[in-house]
Specification:
homodimer; alpha/beta; 434 Repressor (Amino-terminal Domain); Rossmann fold; 3 domains; 6-stranded parallel sheet; 12 helices; DNA-binding; DNA-binding transcription factor activity (chains A, B); LacI family transcriptional regulator (chains A, B)
DNA sequence: GAATGTGATGCAACCGGTTGCATGTCAAGC
DNA sequence: GCTTGACATGCAACCGGTTGCATCACATTC
């Protein structure tokens, strides 16, 4: 093993200085150097100043790995997502990152690519060198998750397992508002363009649509877009138009965006002849027309999840936490009054 | 410090077993247990089997941190990007991730938010616990980058510093093809919607546009969109239309998408009355109309960068590497023949 | 049967920090 | 002047692995 070949020499600075070298150079013990960095209040101001000055000159930086070994605190957390490239995640990652940063933590990012085996592998690699993990839209089965949660503080996002800290984006209120919005605009007959049947979020949304539509006496049909994507959304347009509905709520913004394109290709004007609502609010105003959508607050989810993880790491066990994030409707320009000409069908 | 309170007891299994416990339980030395995991070929098959069986029963997993401390190999790399939420990065991150995974490495992700100070902080936190780093679109100054490169293998993406391994996405060929494409369609007068003046990529693209346009006798005006975004792109539409050009090439896809929206708002039909070309190819077909764009192969960049980092980590110092990735034009539906009515101006 | 070689295993030092406890210094208090 | 205590610093063990070298058992060779 061993250091760089030329690090042994007396005067020559080693490639990366250790605590011992700083100690020797500043004429104090290793313990003092250590304390100068981790518990400076124990030392004279003067000593701290001197040690730090020497350390600075040598370019010394405490070795995190060694520190972690003796303290058990690594200063790392892991975040595993199912697909980095899905626009839902980048804001979440960014927010999680930011929160971790503020606490002085480094974050490992894992990308499971929707594959449970891969996710399990990643967890295995991470778990030894992190103080806690966040699993966003985990595809692992309950048993595995529970096992990992025993070893380390663990927070789930959009996965509802009893006894494990989790943050859930509750799209029901936003969806309800969307239905109300459409009802007020005079729509009586709408479509829900659905996502993956196994997805917790999709179940959430579909149920909310049904419940709320029923309450207001709207008729709702379900049209699948699987897997949910721009393309499947676009392809669904024909069927949706043919069904005679005047508005649609899509599983997510990508599907909604595809739907917009599909409608445009069919010369159906939005919002004049048809209204579209998305879900997640990840596209901002970048669609044409700008999409009315249910804000899923994905950034908040990342922030809150890391926050909960931190408090869990600090030892505040505090039993079960099931943090719900409310959603709300963001009205832009893809929704408008129901067209008068074609009624009910 | 210290372990979990109940880990001391004789029979009770500690929360996370160490090599010593496995050694005792299987009646061999710590060294043997260590070798059973890291160099099994040194041991009898029978011994390996026995040790692993015991380890398994106890739920022992080698502690990465301790291993890293003694070997210097941490099995981690860091990837720092300037903005996770910029659609350019997720594919890059995903590809880098994948490549690292295959090599059994964990990746730290850092988000500098375009801030050099923050980036420097992140590097400082990471550098002690990684074997190498990739800096994508780094905002650090040359001196800092050089210093870090001395301590650890380091690869840059889209940053051109002599003597440091870097992968550069060369958009010139794609931009040239775009100009050729527009010229063939009869456009004589075009606009370049430019990005940040300090950006290496922007300089690249602007120069390529100028050079190629000159070669083909097209006239080019520059219109700024700063910072480059959907909004600034949209706002630039008025000025661009007023200038009398019939086509525009944008610094990136986001700007192009904004421009499309701005044009639509002005009732300028694309591609009938105006052609738009983007850059990066990060939006796929999701714009309306689908965007003709210069593919920047951002995923490849991530993959190649990690690949180079790996070979650098293996000790293949091998002098300077300046890896160029070629780009090409992806023709979709936002470009078409120049309108005949309004000529030159 | 002694010398030699080979392969499996153990011993102990080491990686670079942290920390409980001991030691030393100096000033205040009696 | 001696005790007491507060405070700064040093000593040495420890975290959980890895690894150079020594040892030992056993087989081979002469």
């Amino acid at each position: 093993m061993k250091r760089d070949p030329d690090s042994g020499g007396e005067g020559r600075p080693s490639v990366v200085p250790t605590i011992s070298q700083v100690a020797k150079a500043s004429g104090v013990s290793r313990a003092t150097v250590s304390r100068a960095f981790s518990r400076p209040e124990m030392l004279t101001k003067e000593t701290v100043r001197r040690v730090k000055a020497v350390a600075d000159k040598l370019g010394y930086v405490p070795n995190q790995v060694a520190r972690a070994l003796s303290t058990g605190r690594h200063g790392n957390v892991a975040l595993i997502v199912s697909d980095v490239a899905n626009p839902f995640f980048p804001p979440l990652i960014r927010a999680a990152q930011l929160r971790a940063d503020q606490a002085g933590l480094c974050v490992f990012l894992g990308n499971s690519d929707e594959d449970p085996a891969r996710e399990e592998l990643l967890v295995g690699r991470f778990i030894g060198q992190v103080e806690g993990l966040v699993l966003a839209s985990s595809r692992l089965d309950e048993e595995h998750i529970r096992r990992h949660a025993m070893r380390r503080p663990l927070v789930l996002i959009n996965r509802d397992i009893e006894g494990i800290t989790r943050v859930l984006i509750d799209t029901a209120p936003g969806v309800a508002a969307a239905i109300a919005h459409l009802a007020e605009l005079g729509h009586r007959h709408i479509a829900y363009v659905s996502g993956p049947t196994t997805s917790w979020s999709n179940q959430q949304r579909r149920n909310a649509v049904r419940r709320e539509a029923e309450k207001r006496g709207l008729k709702v049909i379900a049209v699948p877009a699987r897997p949910p994507s721009y393309d499947t959304g676009r392809l669904a347009a024909t069927q949706i138009v043919a069904s005679g509905v005047t508005a649609a709520i899509a599983f997510d913004d990508l599907v909604a965006q595809g739907l917009l394109a599909g409608l445009a290709a069919l010369d159906v004007e939005v919002p004049k002849s048809f209204s579209v609502v998305g879900c997640d609010d990840v596209l901002g105003e970048t669609t044409y027309p700008p999409l009315t959508t249910v804000s899923a607050r994905c950034a908040d989810a990342g922030d809150v999840a890391v926050g909960l993880l931190l408090s869990q790491m600090k030892g505040g066990v505090s039993g079960e936490i099931r943090h719900k994030l409310n959603s709300h409707l963001v009205i832009r320009a893809s929704t408008g009054p129901a067209p008068v000409k074609r009624r009910s069908r």
